[in-house]
Design goal:
The protein has 205 residues and is an alpha+beta fold. The chain folds into 2 domains: 58 residues; 124 residues, CBS-domain (Roll). Strand 5 and strand 6 form a beta hairpin. The protein is elongated, with a radius of gyration of 36 Å.
C-alpha cells in the first residue's frame, strides 16, 4: 500500500512538473513572438517616418526652372528653307523622328511645319506633297519664347494655345525647339528619380 501511494505521488509530481515545463515553454515562445512582432512594427514605423520626412522636406518647384537649364544649347536644329517640297520635309521628319521643322529664310524664322500641318493642310486639302512648297502650308509666324521662360509658363502656353512645339528664340536667333513631350518627359523623369531614391532608402532600412 505504501509503495502504491509512493508511486502515485511520484506520478502526480512528474505530471505537475511536465505541465509547468510546458507552460514555461509556451510563455517563452509567446514572448519571442511578441518580441518579433514589436521589432517588425518598429521597422515599419521607422520607414513611415523616414518617408514622411523625405516627402515633407522643402523641394524646389521644378516648374520654375528656366528652359535654358534643360535644353541642350548647340544641339542640331532641324530646319528647311521656304521652297522645300512637303515630301522632303516629311522624309526629314521621319528620318529624324521629330514632329516639327522650323522654316528659315536665311537665319530668320518665318514659320514652322508640323505633323498636324501635313495632315490638315496637305492630305486633307488634297494637295500634291511633291509639288507643294512648305511655305504654302506651314504655320506662319509661330509663337516663340525666350530661353528664360520657365517650364511652367511654357506648359501653360502650350495648353492654352493647343500646340505642341515652341521655338526658343533669343535676339532673333533660334536656339532650340521644345515640345510638350519634351517638357512632360523632363518633369516625369525628375519625379521618377525621386521615387527611386525613396525606394532605395526604404530597401536599405
Amino acid at each position: 500500500m505504501k509503495k502504491l501511494l509512493y508511486k502515485s505521488g511520484i506520478g502526480i509530481g512528474l505530471a505537475l512538473l511536465s505541465s509547468a515545463a510546458f507552460a514555461a515553454t509556451q510563455e517563452d515562445l509567446l514572448a519571442t513572438l511578441l518580441g518579433q512582432v514589436q521589432l517588425y512594427v518598429f521597422i515599419a514605423f521607422a520607414i513611415i517616418v523616414i518617408a514622411g520626412v523625405y516627402f515633407m522636406k522643402p523641394r524646389e518647384d521644378k516648374r520654375q526652372t528656366p528652359l535654358n537649364k534643360i535644353f541642350e544649347e548647340g544641339k542640331a536644329i532641324h530646319s528647311v528653307g521656304p521652297d522645300t517640297p512637303v515630301t522632303e520635309c516629311v522624309r526629314l521628319m521621319t528620318a529624324s523622328k521629330i514632329g516639327a521643322l522650323i522654316v528659315l529664310d536665311g537665319k530668320r524664322l518665318i514659320g514652322i511645319f508640323t505633323e498636324r500641318d501635313a495632315l490638315n493642310k496637305v492630305l486633307a486639302g488634297g494637295l500634291d506633297p511633291g509639288n507643294t512648297k512648305v511655305s504654302e502650308v506651314m504655320t506662319k509666324d509661330p509663337c516663340c519664347i525666350r530661353p528664360t521662360t520657365t517650364v511652367g509658363d511654357a506648359m501653360e502656353l502650350i495648353t492654352k494655345r493647343r500646340f505642341r512645339h515652341l521655338p526658343i528664340v533669343d535676339n532673333g536667333k533660334v536656339l532650340a525647339v521644345v515640345s510638350s513631350g519634351d517638357l512632360t518627359h523632363w518633369l516625369v523623369q525628375d519625379q521618377m528619380g525621386e521615387v527611386q531614391e525613396l525606394v532605395d532608402l526604404a530597401a536599405g532600412s
